[in-house]
Write a structure and sequence with these properties.
Layout: H1 4-18, H2 28-37, H3 46-59, E1 64-65, E2 69-70, H4 72-80, H5 86-92, H6 103-117, H7 119-125, H8 151-173, H9 215-232, H10 237-253, H11 257-270, H12 275-287, H13 291-308, H14 316-329, H15 333-346, H16 351-363, H17 367-380, H18 385-397, H19 401-414, H20 419-431, H21 435-448, H22 453-465, H23 469-482, H24 486-503, E3 520-521, E4 527-529, H25 537-553, H26 561-569, E5 575-576, E6 582-583, E7 585-587, H27 588-598, H28 604-622, E8 629-631, H29 632-639, H30 647-660, E9 672-673, H31 674-688, H32 697-700, E10 708-709, H33 711-719, H34 728-737, E11 741-746, E12 753-755, E13 758-761, E14 767-769, H35 770-774, E15 777-778, E16 788-793, H36 796-809, E17 812-813, E18 819-820
Parallel strand pairs: 4-16
Antiparallel strand pairs: 1-2, 3-15, 5-6, 7-8, 9-10, 11-12, 13-14, 13-16, 17-18
């Protein structure tokens, strides 16, 4: 980071390079050349350049010297206000800074810098409404866009600063305040490059924690109320607005957010069409945790900006960024992407908007687009540790692991204690099978964050992968002290099973500790089933995949009737497809709002994961053309079979969703076109049963016609085991049994306790969990069998009943030689 003197010298050098006619100002042509030169990778249109120059010359009109253009002081002020990055621009221009090559120039630049910082007082002294010349105040107070206008406002600020100093002195003396007086980041429309960042890459800022319960604070609030009354009693509405805005700014700077919010809300009442108080109120709400209220205020700010035309253009990028952040805090990541993208369009050098866009795109599974946005952000700001971390995660997601490792390492080099970069790097090493390296990285995570139980658990797993079972066991016990989650108990049981297996001489031969070669995969034809209730291996594999998707999205907790309610209560306007057919098409961001209502019981972070899974599995198929819009009726029909409810209700709502689509003209006598029903089945199978291939229904069943099908006919198509969605019955079985535990029974392959159905091989008497059974895994000691005959037990009580029946069918002889029937068994 450049010092104050070197920074002003760099601005002077930039100014001199583009002052082509050496008249001491940058006219529009010279400023245009500067904007283009410092953004070599951005392709500006003539309209964009014109809009940027209009904004600069209007915002910094006090620094325009007639036809000469923007003065040096004006250019310096643009950088002071955050409109650009001096160091980045200086480097992009290929200039070289030598601080001692001309002492006289340095001296003069320092004098110019002093003039710039004191220009607040100079302009004020030449105006009838300025502060005294010896006043020292925040830079924002004299800004041409949002500074103090009226004399009486300065008096209010003087009195407020006295109240704050008095409160701080009392609370500091009593030890009631904590932290440092450091402005939180979620603010400042004087800095287009700033925005508060959310998610795993963010850090908490140091803040003052005021004690709001004591007598001193009560006195302060009462005296502050008097100042607000003085502002309300001003001679004009404009002066009252000026007073409340200034009071709010000072209170916000001192992190008295609740009191600041009162002032900004009053300013909103005084001038509802002014963007600034809505923006400021939104920032306050966000900081105190009112994310929904913050979102509403930012939306109001955008509405006001739209009504006010170009007057508020300078503020729009910040509004979009902060609105995006507020939406992310509610889990609305797709919607947030739209606002980050808009901010980047309005301000192409807004590297944080690009970083946030990349991170959000990654969050919804748009990995390639995320990589592009994050690379652009890093190009603009190479020392952006969080951007390097998120870029690494995106690269890993698309399979570029070598470059992902480099990016994680860059993030760690820039910020050695970067927990997220370290944790994700550990996960990458585990995915690559480099278990020892992974355990070392997780150790570093725990060095920074000792109570990170997930890092502790993953360290145990990586140690297990490296063959260090004893160390893994110790690490697991440490994780158990941090949390009592059930998966830790299962992991410990797994380790014990592996340890017993090694003692018997059946340990894994590859030495990785996972037992990965302790099974063989048998071809599907050798797997036979006993009884009609035993699920076929391939059928179970498909159902397990759908069930995993259900768990990720929590759609099984969403009653299917809610889909019907959405169709009845939230009418979607008709749009027209490229073929001219009407459809109830909806933008992905709006669809995200529908999902938020359907899954309103989810926490924001869980909802993000659900949207990501739905986007990757469903929306990418429905929006194959990447138009950003989805047929809502078809989307509801795709969701209905995996939502909560009886099979009959699910099929009924599926049919009603297709009936609701305008392509069916709301049905003819309660019927839908057969071609639409077949197209739906094809999409359904392509999404949920991709391993079996998308069946070409229209070709298999002949040429399509305009005939219609009733609900009964549709159910027959739907239930067809070969061409329909007959897998639903198996899925329903999983939904009701996949939490069942089978006592002490463990899977003979993976060694984990069996949860869900237990598949028992009736000849060799070993048991498999559903996952290993679906993958065709058997213990190597039984690999010579010609066939394997499995029976499925959904509950352990079924197995006990089966045993009792077996003993009943095999009567035992008594000691006297007579035959008796066994009525009791020792199980």
């Amino acid at each position: 980071m450049a010092t104050r003197g070197s920074r002003s010298e760099k601005v002077r050098r930039i100014f001199q390079q583009f002052d082509f006619n050496r008249d001491g100002g940058l006219n529009r042509e010279e400023m245009s050349a500067l904007v283009v030169a410092v953004n070599p990778r951005v392709k500006f249109s003539d309209e964009q350049i014109s809009a940027i120059l209009d904004e600069v010359f209007r915002t910094y009109s006090d620094f325009i010297d007639g036809e000469k253009g923007l003065t040096y002081d004006g250019l310096l002020r643009t950088y002071d206000d955050g409109a650009g990055d001096v160091d980045r621009d200086f480097e992009a221009l290929g200039l070289e800074f030598k601080p001692d090559d001309d002492n006289n120039d340095v001296t003069s630049s320092l004098a110019l810098e002093e003039a710039s910082t004191s220009s607040v007082m100079e302009r004020a002294s030449s105006s009838a409404v300025g502060p005294p010349q010896n006043r020292r105040t925040a830079a924002w107070a004299a800004s041409p866009n949002h500074g103090i206008i009226f004399d009486d406002t300065w008096k209010l600020i003087d009195d407020l600063e006295i109240l704050i100093k008095r409160l701080k002195a009392k609370q500091t003396k009593d030890g009631k305040t904590k932290g440092e007086n450091q402005n939180p980041n979620f603010d400042s429309y004087s800095d287009p490059g700033w925005s508060r960042e959310l998610g795993p890459s963010s850090e908490l800022d140091k803040r003052i924690v005021w004690d709001e319960t004591g007598h001193d604070y009560g006195v302060f609030v009462k005296e502050l109320g008097s100042l607000r009354s003085r502002a309300d009693g001003s001679r004009s509405r404009e002066e009252a607005f000026d007073g409340h805005m200034a009071l709010g700014r000072v209170l916000y700077d001192q992190q008295l957010f609740k009191e600041s919010l009162v002032c900004f809300k009053r300013a909103c009442e005084l001038q509802p069409t002014d963007v600034r108080p809505h923006f400021r109120a939104g920032n306050c709400y966000y900081v105190i945790g009112g994310h929904s209220e913050a979102k509403s205020e930012f939306i109001s700010a955008l509405d006001a900006a739209e009504a006010g035309g170009n007057q508020w253009a300078y503020l729009l990028p910040q509004i979009h960024v902060n609105l995006g952040i507020s939406l992310e805090s509610e889990g609305m990541v797709i919607s947030a992407c739209e606002h980050y993208r808009e901010a980047a369009i309005l301000c192409p050098t807004h590297f944080r908007a690009l970083k946030l866009l990349g991170s959000a795109l990654f969050g919804v599974g748009e990995y390639k687009a995320a990589v592009k946005a994050l690379e652009e952000a890093i190009y603009m700001k190479n020392d952006y540790a969080d951007a390097h971390c998120d870029l690494a995660s995106a690269l890993h997601a698309i399979g570029d692991d070598e470059n992902a490792i480099k990016e994680f390492q860059k993030a760690i080099d820039l910020k050695p204690g970067h927990v997220d970069a370290l944790y994700n790097l550990g996960g990458l090493y585990m995915d690559m099978g480099r278990y020892q390296r992974a355990s070392e990285v997780y150790t570093r995570v725990l060095g920074v964050w000792p109570n990170h139980w997930r890092a502790q658990l993953n360290k145990a797993v990586s140690l297990l992968g490296a063959g260090e079972s004893e160390e893994a066991k110790k690490t697991l016990k440490e994780a158990l002290k941090m949390t009592n989650r059930i998966e830790l108990y299962d992991a410990i049981a797994h380790l014990k099973q592996l340890h017993k297996k090694r003692l018997k001489g059946n340990g894994s031969g590859n030495g990785n500790g996972n037992g990965d070669d302790s099974f063989v995969i048998v071809e599907a034809l050798k797997f036979k089933t006993i009884g009609e209730k035993t699920t076929l291996r391939q059928e179970l594999a498909t159902a397990l995949d759908i069930r995993t998707f259900q768990r990720t999205t929590r759609l099984s907790r969403c009653d299917v009737d809610l889909l019907k309610k959405e169709m009845n209560e939230n009418e979607t306007p008709l749009t027209y497809s490229g073929n001219g057919f009407p459809e109830k098409s909806i933008r992905k961001a709006s669809l995200e709002g529908v999902l938020r209502r359907l899954l309103g019981f989810l926490k924001p972070e869980t909802f993000v994961g659900a949207v990501k899974a739905i986007n990757l599995k469903i929306l990418t198929v429905l929006d194959e053309s990447e138009s950003g819009r989805v047929d809502l009726g078809m989307f509801f029909a795709i969701l209905a079979p995996i939502c909560g409810g009886t099979p009959e209700k699910r099929k009924r709502v599926t049919f009603d969703s297709l009936l609701w689509r305008p392509a069916n003209d709301h049905g003819v006598n309660g019927q839908i076109k057969k071609i639409d029903a077949l197209r739906y089945i094809k999409l359904l199978r392509a999404i949920y049963i991709p391993s079996q291939g998308a069946s070409e229904l229209l070709e298999l069943h002949g040429d399509p016609d305009d005939s219609t099908v009733s609900f009964t006919d549709f159910v027959a198509l739907f239930d067809d085991p070969d061409w329909g969605f007959g897998i639903l019955s198996t899925l329903m079985k999983l939904e009701t049994t996949d939490r069942n535990r089978h006592g002490k029974h463990s899977c003979a392959v993976c060694r984990y306790p069996i949860i869900g159905s237990r598949f028992k091989e009736m000849k060799s008497q070993f048991s498999l969990c559903g996952q290993c059974y679906s993958e065709g895994k058997v213990p190597p000691s039984f690999k010579q069998q010609d066939e394997y005959r499995f029976k499925e037990y959904a509950k352990e009580s079924e197995a006990v009943k089966d045993k009792c029946m077996w003993f009943s069918l095999h009567p035992a002889k008594s000691s006297s030689g007579t035959t008796t029937t066994a009525t009791t068994t020792n199980l």
